Amino acid sequence: MSLMLGAMTPAISGNITQLKAIILADFRRTETNIGYHAGRLTQGYKLLLLKRLPEPKDFELHGNTMRSGGKFGLPGSTDAEDAGRGSVHDSILGQRGQDGYRDFQELVLDFTAVSGSDRLVKILPTTRHDSAMSPSDQYPMGGGFLQWDLKKPGLPFLFAAEFMSNGNVRTKDHTYQINSGNFLKDYPEREKLQKFLRQV
Fold first, then answer.
1. For 20-52, what is each residue's pLDDT tens digit?
2. Alpha-carbon distances of 110 from 53, 133, 181, 200, rounded to whole Å
3. Cβ neighbour number for residue 14 with a 10 Å cutoff
4. Is residue 110 within 8 Å of 39, Cβ to Cβ?
5. Which residues contact 92 (CB under 8 A, 6 or more apart)?
6. Between the CA of residue 161 and those of 41, 45, 137, 188, what are the distances in Å?
7. Are 74 and 67 contacting, i.e. CB atoms less than 8 angstroms apart?
8. 89-117 b/e with 16+ CB inside 10 Å = b?
9. How far apart are CA 161 and CA 174, in angstroms?
10. Does the structure show a pLDDT above 90 at 1?
11. What pLDDT is attached to residue 88?
12. Which residues pair with 106 in a beta bridge?
């Protein structure tokens, strides 16, 4: 899928989280927050922002990023073992029923926004999923940030920023140098980028 920086994407599905899980100063901390193995973001990633809140029909609850794959317990060492883990979605649905599930979705939507650090985002890593890697290695338990799954066909996002392997971040109109190693230069750039991502 070809995406244009600064433009809206076609509908995209899959896991989403919140902007506050993205740590501008450190790819490793972002990987830990999301629940990616160390090195997954080394080659960079695209950051997509939702411009409107989803409706309950658009998503399933997957708990938070401590629930790798939206399932209880630690990820398995094989795909077959991982498939046996209980689903957060199924558990909530079983406890609350369809109406209660929807009410819970409405409730948790109140903790999100279309701007600020609580806005909903999607990361598209340059390094894609590796089917040869075990779930336990590839998707370790994350840092406890919101995790929902957008159902197909998904929703359009704004392709807001591209985080490069060299530590720079490109937006439509600017390139931010946020990880040069010089804190006095990097911090103001991080601050500008954070403001942009919260407001765009």
1. 999 999 999 999 999 999 999 999 999 999 999
2. 10, 36, 38, 20
3. 13
4. no
5. 61, 101, 104
6. 14, 9, 27, 17
7. no
8. beebbeeeeeeebeebbeeebeebbeeee
9. 10
10. no
11. 97
12. none
φ/ψ (deg, to 5) at 37: -70, 155
| CB-based burial label for 118 (10 Å; 0-12, 13-18, 19+) | middle
- From CA 33, how far away is CA 1, in angstroms rounded? 26
CA–CA separation, 70 and 88 (whole Å) = 6
Rounded Cα gap, residues 117 and 190, in angstroms: 14
Backbone torsions φ then ψ of 79, nearest 5 degrees = -60, -40
Which residues have CB under 8 Å from 144's CB, separation 6+? 64, 65, 66
> What is d(CA 130, CA 71) in angstroms, rounded to the nearest whole number?
19
What span, in angstroms and rounded, lies between the C-alpha atoms of 89 and 109? 16
Identify which of 15, 17, 14 has the alpha carbon closest to the alpha carbon of residue 119.
Answer: 17
